[in-house]
Amino acid sequence: MDFYSFIFRKRQIFIIMVLSLMMTGVTKSQERDFYWWNEIHNWDGITNWEDYIIKSPGFMGPNALPVPQVKNGNIVYDFEVQIATDIHFSKGDQTQNLFLHIDYPLVKEVVSLEFYVVPLEHYKMDITTRDYRYSRDFDGKGFAGGDIYFGTQIQIVKNNEKWPDIALGLNCRTASGTNLEGARFTEGPGYFFDLSFGKNMNQKWNFYGMAGFYVWQANYNTGHVTYHQNDAFLFGLGTGYSFKSLTINNSFAGYLGYIGNDDKPIVYRLDLKKELGKIDVHAGYQYGINIVKYHMFRVSVFFRFEKGIVEFPL
After folding, report:
1. Residue 40 domain-assigned?
2. What's the mean pLDDT in 77-83?
3. Whose CA is closest to 181, among 145, 122, 137?
4. Are residues 115 and 176 in the same domain?
5. Rounded distance, CA 280 to CA 271, Å?
6. What's the whole-model pTM score?
7. Would you say residue 164 lies in a domain?
8. What would you measure as the largest C-alpha separation in the chain, in angstroms?
């Protein structure tokens, strides 16, 4: 072996040793970063941390598995865009987020398309809540992006003297949410469908409600049984009062999961909407009666546009 071959081989050995030390350092650093989590939750060293996260409304942020809004048996007549900001208060979790909702009448008074999302969420949890949710956020605070929902509303009955207005809703949730580590969004798909109804009692009062089915990916292991999804009965009832350009709505809504892992949220909502031409100003309050005990305040603006692809009165 000549001198240059000897130097070249030594250099190769040196590079391999440096890379090995670097990789070992990264691994040790990662172990140290989550050492606190491993100790608190008695990690067995084998199970993936994702299996510890419980994909249930009682173990995640307020926007992970929200209770759907109660529909009133009618689809939108105009193209509507809602931009809102929400503030959630609870004992162990303070959350603020943006909210975007789009309703598009594909066939006027017959079919509409719906899209909504929480594009950005900021949160801060206390240590007790962080550990209860198996979150891996050491400081319990950060940002997340929400799931995208899309669906369609189909008018079944409209302006019938004997029957209330009835609409069918079909909705899907994509697995687009982020920050499963912080127990903010499930990063799993879901869907729900419902029949909503509404009846105007006179010029001012109306009553409405819905009933349906809510399903989401759970992957919950009890040690004896693995539930790949959770199925829930979806329900809601409400009443509205209109006075000139002001509308006040009160509603109760929720869903009842069958697994039993804090999966039965019920909420009360108070909404006020003021019409200002083609713009509506909205203020809302929501309280979690059980499971998700947040006080939520919403301020939003609705922009309405006269737009439809096909006109076909029912």
Report:
1. no
2. 92
3. 137
4. yes
5. 12
6. 0.85
7. yes
8. 102
Host domain of residue 273? 49-311
CB within 8 Å of 171: residues ≥ 6 apart: 68, 114, 149, 150, 151, 152, 191, 192, 193
277 and 177 in a common domain = yes
Q: What is the pLDDT of residue 18?
A: 45
Do 74 and 15 lie in one domain? The reply is: no
Q: Answer yes or no: is 39 within a domain.
A: no
What total number of domains does the chain contain?
A: 2
Share of the chain above pLDDT 70, in %: 87
Instruction: Looking at the structure, tell me whether residues 22 and 161 fall in a common domain.
Output: no
Beta carbons of 188 and 217 less than 8 angstroms apart: yes
In this structure, is residue 60 part of a structural domain?
yes
- At 144-189, the pLDDT tens digits run 999 999 999 999 999 888 899 999 999 999 999 999 999 999 999 9
Give the DSSP letter string of 210-222: EEEEEEEEEEEE-
Average pLDDT in the chain: 88
Task: Give 230's strand partners.
Answer: 216
Backbone angles phi, psi at 227, to 5 degrees: -100, 115
Q: Are residues 23 and 127 in the same domain?
A: no
Determine the pLDDT at residue 312: 42
Q: Which two tokens stand for residue 176?
A: 């687009």
Q: How far apart are CA 93 and CA 309, in angstroms?
A: 43
Residues 17, 55, single domain; the answer is no
What is 106-145 written as a DSSP string?
Answer: EEETTEEEEEEE---EEEEE-HHHHHHTT---SSSEEEE-
Model confidence pLDDT, tens digit, residues 253-303: 999 999 999 999 999 999 999 988 889 999 999 999 988 889 999 999 999
Nearest to 248 by CA among 270, 269, 267: 270
